[in-house]
Amino acid sequence: MDDTPSQVESIAVTIAQGDLGFAHIHKTYSGEEALKVFQERTIHIVITDIRMPEMNGIELIRQIREKDRKVKIIVLSGYADFEYAQSVVPYNTSGYLMKPVNPVQLQEMLGKLLGEIAGEMQQRKQQQRDVYAFRENLPALRNELLVRLLGGDRVPYSELERKLFLLNLPFSANREAGMFIVRLEGRLQEYVNADRDLIEYAVTNMAEEVFQEAFHLWFCRDHNEYLVFVASPVVKGSEPLETGSALDRYALDKLAATLKKKAESLLNNSMSIVLGSNGAIFPEGLQDLYRKLVNGIRQIDDGRDSAFLRVIESPSQVVIGTMTSLYRPPLLLHLLDTGNWDGAEKKLNEIFNELKSVHYPPEYANEAYFAIANAYQYMAHKKGKLLSELGGSSLGLMPAAPSLKQLERWAFFIFESIRGLFHERAEKQKMGLIDKVHEYVEHNMNTGLSLQTLAAHVGLHPAYLSRAYRAETGSNLSDYILRRRMELATYLLCNSDNKIYEIAQIVGYQAVPHFIKLFKAYSNMTPQEYRDRAGQK
After folding, report:
1. Which residues make Cβ contacts (< 8 Å) with residue 429, sequence separation at least 6?
2. The overall pTM is greater than 0.85
3. Highest-confidence range of 16-25, 150-159, 175-184, 351-360, by mean pLDDT?
4. Dihedral angle at the C-alpha atoms of 417, 419, 425, 430, nearest 10 degrees?
5. Domain HTH araC/xylS-type spans what residues (predicted)?
6. Does residue 305 lie within any of the structural domains?
7. Are 419 and 457 contained in the same domain?
8. What SS3 class is residue 232?
9. Residue 510 is part of which domain span?
């Protein structure tokens, strides 16, 4: 823009000759005309003279900057205007050229500015992608943070406040918050993956709609596949945000009941809700309240698929210990390896009966899963299969910390798949040599097991049996017997009150000093030291 037409035409020609890729070059001859074009078109670079009649260049730049802080501006001026041109400095101009304009300098400056514009556009696109990605992952980020708090993860206050702000969660430290847990029932539990995500999305949307006037909600899916909601009162208008302010429990109960009724009606199925009679101070009290509600919802009978329960008193404290059935010999792995399918099925029933009889924390289901999956993987690999090949998309491998019902369904499904895999070609055939040897060892642990007695049992020469066993398993038969005896001994030391000499006899050693020597070689400590370290009497 210049009030001298010849100067405008000269600059326009210079720009066109530079082949810089401009789509449009707009020529104007006054500040008012230039401002009108700027308002109507998308302009990336403005070239303007300083001294002009009516609206001068400085006023034009000031009004442009009010509308756009990013557009590039090149200032033209004569030598006499240099001091006058300094007044445009506060308006963040991009360049300054003296009249008459040098074409080379103009093209170089325009090329530089085009590079800056391209970089800024790329940066804006990346920012847009980042914002989109953040919004897409916002539910997962909120879920992850709440799971951490429910699990007792001590997030520093400064970090927690920053995360709450970034995740747009209106929760404040040291304020009382309520909590309730939703468990989908009936056929809703059968949904998996995307279908289950859709159901849970519908439930959480309904919850936000029901609670929005009175409570802010923050929710997650926990390791039990329950939906856990934390509720914080909505502060109206100029109400003070008091530390530890009282929670309206009646309103929370009423809205939770409304949510249950609405969700069951729209989903045409049932659900259970458990909530606490008391709130918890955020965030320190969340873990204890969460544990109470989880223990409470587990007390709902399996046959009752639509409950509304308020936990008034704390369930008895769970005593943390080892799962007896999971580690009591014979282990599931050994039962499967010896082809004792009835025994393996009985072992699975023992494990799940124990998990159901005691209100174990969710972590125990995780422990059971890894132990069972380890045994299953070993058996699948023996047949040249991957465990993921033995089930459908939802029953091959499972995520960590599955729910108890999900874990039980998975365990028996894969068990039947493995049993079928091993019976495909030899369902009615006799057990193989190795299976016979292992079965005999399991049932005669406390006798004088030897290569000779085993050979007599299977009807083979001891030397042939030794070679055949080593060729099939890669280890010596005597090493297998020793290992099985020591495994049983370590279990009895930790889980029984038997004396050391009694354990020695149970695992087949009449001479106690010999047993102690072998055990020390196996575990690098004496039986008594092992028991003491395990915290047993």
Report:
1. none
2. no
3. 175-184
4. 180
5. 435-533
6. yes
7. no
8. strand
9. 433-533
